[in-house]
Amino acid sequence: MIRIGIVEDDPASAQLLVGYLRRYQDEHAEEFDVRVFSDGAQVVKHYRPDFDILLLDVQMAELDGFATAERIRAVDRDVVIVFITNMAQYAIRGYEVDALSYLLKPVAYFPFSQEIARSLERIRRRSAEYLLLPVDGGVARVDVADVIFAESVKHRIVLHTTAGMYGMTGALKTLEAQLGAHGFFRSNSCYLVNLRHVQGVRQNSCQLVGGHDLVISRPRKKAFLAALTDYLAGRPL
Questions:
Q1: Where are the beta strands (DSSP E) in the chain?
Q2: pTM of the entire structure?
Q3: Domains of the chain and any CATH numbers
Q4: What confidence tens digit (pLDDT) does each residue in 75-84 have?
């Protein structure tokens, strides 16, 4: 499911976009979870990086679209931002916050559908590089590169990342199949290690960033060292 936020202070314009999204779903067999905010201040309050696309009106009474985007970019570098404006000269400022594009009001369906298609393409190109993890009744999007290692603990998985730890249900074997192509390798039956964070290997353990020291089992040591050598040499695992 694609999570989309509409930030628009004109109710009629907001409903027009909601209708366009429903039409796009029907035409392209997509599934959207849409939330509507009446001002930039409303969306930045308690913002969490769990949106895929934000459709931002530029001119809003309390917090305009550019100020909203700047605050969001401070905590979410990945959400796709599309500005909606009635003044084309505002478009150039969108590059300052890495906006994908902009739409001119009154928004017609055809250009709108093209921008949604472009947004979905960008999301799906990078989707394999992120994990969606359950946190506090919601989800957090974690960059795979930030995962240091995954640990199997009593039928649960604990992900140790550069930003902290996340718990999730599942099997380490399933996660290994998902992340194997991203430079992850098992050091033993309990640990799945991101090789990019290995700082050294000493006897039967590997040292990772953050001071982690993980055991390498004897049966896996040869394969682990070979995988680490291939990773450092830039060869596919």
A1: 2-7, 32-37, 53-57, 80-85, 101-104, 130-135, 138-143, 147-153, 156-161, 164-169, 184-186, 191-194, 198-202, 205-208, 213-215
A2: 0.57
A3: 2-129 (3.40.50.2300), 136-232 (2.40.50.1020)
A4: 887 899 999 9
